[in-house]
Amino acid sequence: MDDDAAGATMPCMSFPTSARELTAVEWELVELARITIDANTDAGADEDGVHTMGAAVRTEDGHMFGLATAPTLMLAVARR
Fold first, then answer.
1. How far apart are CA 69 and CA 54, in angstroms?
2. Which of 49, 67, 69, 72 has the fewest CB atoms within 10 Å, counting from its CB?
3. d(CA 28, CA 5)
């Protein structure tokens, strides 16, 4: 498959050619999810937290919440 058919690629990820760049507002959610995951990871300093999952959501009024879960942590919530 050529690049146009396969879409953009990154290590272990591929995107359809119709994928668009994230907006600044969307990147804020990504960053909050990363911060929340990093603060609650089950990994050591030089390790990836392969069992840590996280997400961030924005409410209609603009509040953002980050959620993380790991084997040693049931649920962590961060509000920004």
1. 6
2. 72
3. 30
> What is the domain count for the chain?
1
Domain with 29 in it:
21-79
Whether residue 1 is contained in a domain is answered as no
Alpha helices in the chain, H assignment, sequence order = 3-6, 24-40
Per residue in 7-40, pLDDT (tens digit) is 455 566 777 777 888 899 999 999 998 888 888 7
CB 6 within 8 A of CB 14: yes
Whether pTM exceeds 0.85? no
* CA–CA gap between residue 79 and residue 66 (Å, rounded): 6
Domain presence at residue 9: no
